[in-house]
Amino acid sequence: MAGVINVSQFPILRTFSRRSSVPAGIRTSIPATRASSSETPPSSGATTAATRGEEQEAAPSFAAPAGFKTPEPKRFAVRPDKGLDVAGAALALFFRLGTGVFLNGYSVSFVSKDEIPADQYALELAGIKILNACTSFLHVRTVATNLQIFSCPFCRKVREIVAVLDLDVLFYPCPRNGPNFRPKAVELGGKQQFPYMVDPNTGVSMYESDAIIKYLVDKYGDGRVPLMLSLGLLTTLTAGFAMIGRMGRGQSYIPSKLPPKPLELWAYEGSPFCKLVREVLVELELPHIYRSCARGSPKRQILYAKTGHFQAPYLEDPNTGVQMFESAEIIEYLTATYAA
Prior knowledge:
globular; 3-stranded antiparallel β-sheet; alpha+beta; about 15% strand
C-alpha cells in the first residue's frame, strides 16, 4: 500500500534500536542484534517462497512515465513558467550571503580556455575558463559510509554545513504528517525533533542543528564553524528569512509511493534550482542520497567525466534507470513517478 514502509529497505531502519548513556545531545548507536531464537522460522522452503512471492506482489513497481524523454541540459536557462519559483528560491542567497555555495577552502583562478584539457571541468564565461579548487585539507578525511539525517524544511543550517564540507548524506525527509520517517525518527531517537543525525562511521547520533554543525566540522572539517553559521540568533533568523520566497513549499506531505531504493541527487544548498527539487523530494517523502557538489567540490569533475557535462541538480533514479538534468523536468518526473 502506498506510504507503508518496508523497514528492511533502508539502512537507518535496520540499526540503532538501543540508546546508551553518553553526553547530552549525543548518542552512541548500537547495531541491532539478530532476531531472538524464540521466534518461529518458516516451517518449509515452500512457505518461504510463498512469503517472498507475496512481498514481491505487494511492492509497487516503478517505471519512467509514458512518453518520457530525457531533457537536454541547458546551462543558466530558466524555463519561462518557473521564473517566479527560481526568483523566490534565490532570495536565500541574499539572506545567507551565499553560505552553501562554496566549499571550505574554495579558491578560483582564471585561464584561457585553450589551457584546459577537454576532459577537465571548468566553468566558461566569455572565452575564459574559471577553475574551481579547494585548498582545504578536508578531502583527506574520507567518509566510509554516508551520514544519515532525518530532516525537515527548517534544517537549512545543517544542509549548509553539509555543502561547505562536501559531505554526502542519505536524507530521510520528514514533512509534516509524513507517515514513514517522522515516526521512525521518534522511535530511534525518542523525540519528534529535527534534524536528527546518525553517523554510521562513529556510531554517534544526535539532535540540535548547532551541535550537529560543531560535530561535523570537528570530525570532517578543520574545526572552525563558518561565520554565517556561528552568529547564534542572527544565524537562526537569517535562515528563517531564507524561506520567505518559498513560504509553505516543501513542508507538508503529499501522498506518495515509497521506492525500494533511495534516489541520488547531485546538488548543493546554495543553488535555487536544487532547492526547488529538494522541496518536492521532501513533500513526497522520498529518501535520497545527496551528492554535495558546491563550487570547489572535486565531485564536479566526477560528474563531468560521467556525463560529459556538469550542471546541478542532476538526478539518478535506480528504481527506473532515469538519469537527468534540468530542475523543472526533474520535478515533473518525480511527481509523475512517485505521487500517489
